[in-house]
Every structure is written in C-alpha cells, then in structure tokens.
From TrEMBL:
Belongs to the binding-protein-dependent transport system permease family. Residues 90-279 form the ABC transmembrane type-1 domain. The keyword Iron does not apply. It comes from Rouxiella sp. WC2420. Gene3D superfamilies: MetI-like (1.10.3720.10). The chain crosses the membrane at residues 21-45, 94-118, 138-168, 211-236, 256-279. It holds the Pfam family BPD_transp_1. It is a multi-pass membrane protein. This is ABC transporter permease.
Amino acid sequence: MILLRSAVQKVLAPKRARRRFYGDGVLGALLLLVVIVPALLAPWLPLANPLTNSLAAAFSPPGTHTASGIHWLGTDQLGRDLLSRILAGTRLSLMVVLLAALIAAVIGSALGMIAGYVGGWLDAVIMRLMDIQLAVPFILLILLVMALFGATLTNIIVIMGVTSWAIYARVARAKTLEIRELEYIESVRAMGFSTPRILLRHVLPNLMTPLIVLLTLDIPRLIVLEASIGFLGMGIQPPTATLGNLIGEGRSYMLLAQWLVLYPGLVIAALVIGCNLLGDSLLRKTHTRLD
C-alpha cells in the first residue's frame, strides 16, 4: 500500500507542479497585462490630458461627468483626471524601472563573470565591493546621491541601476564557477580562445536563464524602490506623474479623496504581485537556483 501511494505521488507530482506553474504564471501575466497594456495605449485612448487643470472639477469622485468628459477614477486637487495621470505615471515608472534593471543586470553579470572565471585578487576585490554595496541600504544611498546630483530622470535611472548590480554579480559569479569547470570550457581554453571570447560566447549564454529569472524577481523591488523615492519627494517632480509621487501628493487629502492614494497603490500592488508570480513560476519551471 505504501509503495502504491508512493508511485501515485510520483506520477501526480509533475502534474501538480505544471498546474501550479501555469496557474501562477497566467495569473501574474494577466495582472501585468491589465496594468501595462492600458498604460502603453494611453496616448491613443480618448482620455483627458494628465496635465490639464480644472479647479472647478477638483476632488470629483470616481465616475463624475464634467465638461471635459467622464472621470472614471475621479480627479485630484487641481481637477486633473486621475486615470490619465495613473496611466502616464505607470508608463514613466516602468521605463525607469526597466532601464535601471537592465543597467544593473549588465554591470552585475559582467563583474560576476569576471570574478568567477578569472578568480584571484580580482575576484576578492569584486566580492568586497559587492559586500560593501549590500551592506548599505539602497534607499539611503540613492537619496544621498540624488541630493548631491539632483533628481533628474537620467540620474534616477543610472543611480538605481548602479546601486543594484550586486545581486546579479553574486548569481553570475556562482554560475560561472560551475561552468568554468566543465569539459567544453577546458577544451576551448586549450584551443587558445581569449578570455573575453570564452565569457561572451560560451559562459554568458549559460547564464541567461538564471539572470532572466532573477531580473523578473528583482523588478518588483525596483518598482517599490522607485515608488518610495517618488513618495518621499526625491524622485521625478510634479506635475510629471509617477506612481510614487501620485501617492505622495494624495496622502494630504486622504480623508477628503481616498481615491488619490487607493488607485495608484492598487497599480503598484498589481505590478509587484504580477512580477512575483511570474518570476516564481519561471523559477520552478526552469529549476533555477539563485544562490
């Protein structure tokens, strides 16, 4: 009986894993599509200009009809359409997060591959730099740098990217240490291939899967980080909308117009949950270890 139960569990386990992968993955993808697609299509949708003020329509509740049309999510303290501002803010916040993640992934992957493949004192130096960065709180470091150099769009993207490379370097180094011991790497090394060629043509392709999974799981952290910077008033400044500064502006009017904080918060939650579900699904599907 025990053997039969064990055999049944072995047969059903892969099916349950597939159901969980597709269930979580589909749910995560749907959450992301519901938020991202309208944000990308917003410039071509019949919506109010996110920068147009109408003081007569200030603090209009969701669903209010005014001379400028229907405000599905209400208006803010200056009478600006909240839906238009959320979509514009989502688009800008996602651009910042994706570019910052790309910068972090490129820097971290390059340093991690070099540390893992070359080893020696260079590995020790990169590892110490990694430890230093991980020991400093991201938000404090970013706020300090932006206070010194200004909160321009370019500065925010670069600073977020440069301060986030350590986790990519750690994963890339660990995987490179495994890959460099493989026989085909020893073969191409014996053939006289240069180190850059080996890293780019033979090591990097084997790192793509764990790095893509890590990127998917790291984007939620960057979304929250970018929103936190905007909320604290250190990010992109109004009237340009981001998800963080929408909540930062709306918190002063929470008792009067709760929708100013509620809807941007729901968008952030949907993005974070969607990315996490999708990343967890990819992690299980690819059997990737990020340590």
